[in-house]
Amino acid sequence: MNEAKRLIQQITEGIQDKKGKKIVIADLTQIDDTICNYFVICQGNSPSQVTAIVDSVKEFTRKGADSKPSAVDGLRNAEWVAMDYSDILVHVFLPEAREFYNLEHLWADAKLTQIPDLD
C-alpha cells in the first residue's frame, strides 16, 4: 500500500472513530494544476463533534502513518476545518457548511469514492 493510501486509510478510521458521516474521498490525481492529490471530505453534527473528528484524525495519522498535518484551519468556529497533509487535504464540515460549499460538485471531474457510514 503506498503512503497516500495508508494515510487516507488512517484519516478515514480517525473520522469513523468519532462517528463522522458521509465520508467522500476525491481522487484529484488525473486533474491538472490541483493543490493536492486527494480530498477527504466528511461531516460532524456539531462544532464539538467536528473538533473531536479533527483530533481523532491527528491521533490516527500520527500513530498509524507517522504523519502530522502541516496546517489546521477553521477550528475557531469549527464549521469547516481543513487539515493539510500536503498531498491530502481533509475537510471536516458541519452539514450546512458542507452543503453551502459543495466541494464534491466543485471537483466533479475527480474520481469520488463514498465510504459507507458506520452505525
Question: What would the keywords be for this entry?
Answer:
119 residues; alpha+beta; 4 helices; 28% strand; globular
List the uncertain runs.
none
From the spread of the alpha carbons, the general shape counts as: globular
End-to-end separation: 27 Å
What is the helix/strand order?
HEEHEEEHHE
Question: What is the mean predicted local confidence, pLDDT?
Answer: 95
Could you give the count of β-strands? 6
Q: What's the main sheet like? A: 6 strands, mixed
The helicity comes to 25-40%
Task: Give the gist of this structure.
It contains four helices and six strands.
Structure description:
With 119 residues, this protein is of the alpha+beta class. 38% of the residues lie in helices and 28% in strands. The chain has a six-stranded mixed beta sheet with strand order 3-4-5-2-1-6. α1 (3-17) packs antiparallel against α2 (47-65). It is globular and about 35 Å long. The mean pLDDT is 95.
Secondary-structure map with pairings?
Blueprint (H helix, E strand, L loop, with lengths): L2 H15 L3 E7 L10 E6 L3 H19 L5 E3 L6 E6 L2 E6 L1 H7 L1 H4 L4 E5 L4
Parallel strand pairs: 2-5
Antiparallel strand pairs: 1-2, 1-6, 3-4, 4-5
Helix pairs in contact: 1-2
